[in-house]
Amino acid sequence: MRAFKSVLPVLLYFAVFVGNSLAPSLVNAFEKGQEPDNSMCLGCHGMDGFAMPDADGAMRQLHVSRDAFQKSVHAKRSCLECHQDIQQIPHQTNVDRKVGCVECHQNLWDKAQKEGKTEEFERLGVVVKQIERYMGSVHAQPNIKDQSRTNATCYNCHDAHYIFPEESMERVESRLAIPDKCGNCHAEQRDAYFTSVHGKEVLQNGNLNAAVCTDCHTTHDIESPKQDSIRLAITQNCGNCHDKQLKSYMGTYHGQVNRLGYAHTAKCFDCHGNHDIQRVDDPASTVHKSNRLATCQTCHEDATEGFVDFHPHGNTHDFERYPNMWIASKLMIGLLAVVFTFFWGHAALWFYREHKDRKEGKHTAHIDVTNLPNTEGKHFRRFSWGWRITHLALVLGVMILVLTGMTVLYADSFWAPTVMKLLGGPEVAGTLHRIGALTFIGVFFGHLLAIAICIIRNCKTWTWFGPRSLLPNWQDLRDVIAMFRWFFGKGERPIFDKWTYWEKFDYWAPFWGLTIVGVSGGMMWFPEVTASVFPGWVFNVATIVHGEEAFLAAVFLFTVHFFNSHFRPDKFPQDISMFTGTVPLEEYKREHTLEYQRLVESGQIDKYLVDAPSKPMTTGSKILGAFLILTGLGLLAFLLMGFWGNVLFG
């Protein structure tokens, strides 16, 4: 009986071939030039076990489930629309049986467009777009071993008779068969997948939500995972299921570079594996604590045990799991709030009072000062060449740091990929960032050395808290109080000595800023050294502190410092004294009255009096100053757009 069943399909076909007795209606339809309906075809193909021998003698299954086909999207189409080579019964032999899926769908879509039925056949338009994506994929490319065929065509992945509507349960359940379908060509990857946490959920539990091949590799536009674009896409696809983990990963340097469109930093699968991925707590997992160091060492060859405690998915909102990150974040937010509340409020009140005083003609000093003869048009030499060059080097170094740093920090901003591309990519940007850092460090320590030499040379007359010193003193506190009294109309504007309290703050800000930014940046610059001394979570804290302090420094520089130096009413639009080195004597007399009076009384004023800068020097200084100010404001605009983007959508 079993033997009979095995040859039954052959006997049936033989009967058709000899006498046309099995499907006379089908034969008659061909003889009359009519197109037979699908039920006629299913008269044979709808029988269980219906098969035919191939050229090599092996049986080729030709059975089509009548019930399943009726539920498919192709049920309304005629069989002969696809099988156009079928023109008679019995079917011709030695015919190349090709079904043109691409051509058929394109022709139907063209017809729908001509007839104005694109809305009615909207789903067909989607399929045509999928075909266009497929045509650019690795599957549509000629097979390496057999150039006469593609790597995979439509029916290698889809069973044309059983393509079900998207909303149907059959379509949902068919995703469980995808790994086996892909495994027909990718057997090694399929076998590894079935050992993974994803594969076990599919194979053992029938979990429809578990990831299958197409969830990671996409569907129609599949390319080689060796391509950067595909590696980036796969990383994003991981986030379709693991959205919280993707978000936290994107907050790391690895993820920021990824978001900018570059694939040389670690991706999800570089750490967790790919087809054979396991749960984190599984001893076989590549990110299990016992295996994590070896995984880190695939990129960081000299990685030490400290790397194991790094939190690649840490965040600042979970105190229980990441207390160090939470505390660091809240401290930096508090610092930002205090600094900007005070200094932005200070600037706003200053602008209001100075503008009001100027309208009332009160912008001159309110005390009598010595008026020197023959000083009309004279300038006061305030900054030496050393100060001016140091300032310019510091400005350029800081702007390089801000430009390169903020592009990574706000990698999700619309402008960041373009800026990074103009910079030459993350590796070039990283080099530029380090050049900026070394410039800052060089200026910092060079300045300390110069100050030390100056103090040593004038040790007999030097006073640590004297009027020439930049160290804060009690007079600065009294000046702050007096300034706020003036802001609110409760007193006269205070008069100042050689250095005002806001100039001292501007001077000292880089000291504590460099300590925070420099130390945290150095720790990330040399991770192997850092991890040999500190636990890995220090990198998480360093990243937070480095970014927040850099943001504070940059925004303070381009708002508060720019206002104090350039944008307050009696300075607008710019003060070029740091480029020319001199200040009009009348202006210096008004701004630093006590220093001016002391120099006059001591007879030393003549040492500081110089002619006004030449016209070329003045013009050049204005151009340079304007360029730096506009550049700073441009950087500020990018910073604020990035910041608010994070606040609103982060």
Q: What's a quick, concise take on this entry?
A:
With 650 residues, the protein is mainly alpha-helical. It is 58% helix and 2% strand. The longest helix has 37 residues, at 323-359.
Please characterize this protein's 3D structure.
- This protein is mainly alpha-helical.
- The chain has a domain at 1-98.
- 58% of the residues lie in helices and 2% in strands.
- The protein has 30 helices and five strands.
- The strands form two sheets. A three-stranded antiparallel β-sheet has the order 4-3-5. The protein has a two-stranded antiparallel ribbon with strand order 1-2.
- The chain is elongated, with a radius of gyration of 38 Å.
In DSSP terms (H or I, runs of 4 or more residues), the helix count works out at: 30
Number of strands: 5
The low-pLDDT segments are 1-23
Principal-axis shape equals elongated
Helix percentage range: 55-70%
Global structural class: mainly alpha
Spatially, the strands of the biggest sheet line up as: 4-3-5
Beta-strand proportion: under 5%
Rg (CA only): 38 Å
| Sheet of most strands | 3 strands, antiparallel
User: Span from first to last CA?
Assistant: 69 Å
Mean pLDDT: 88
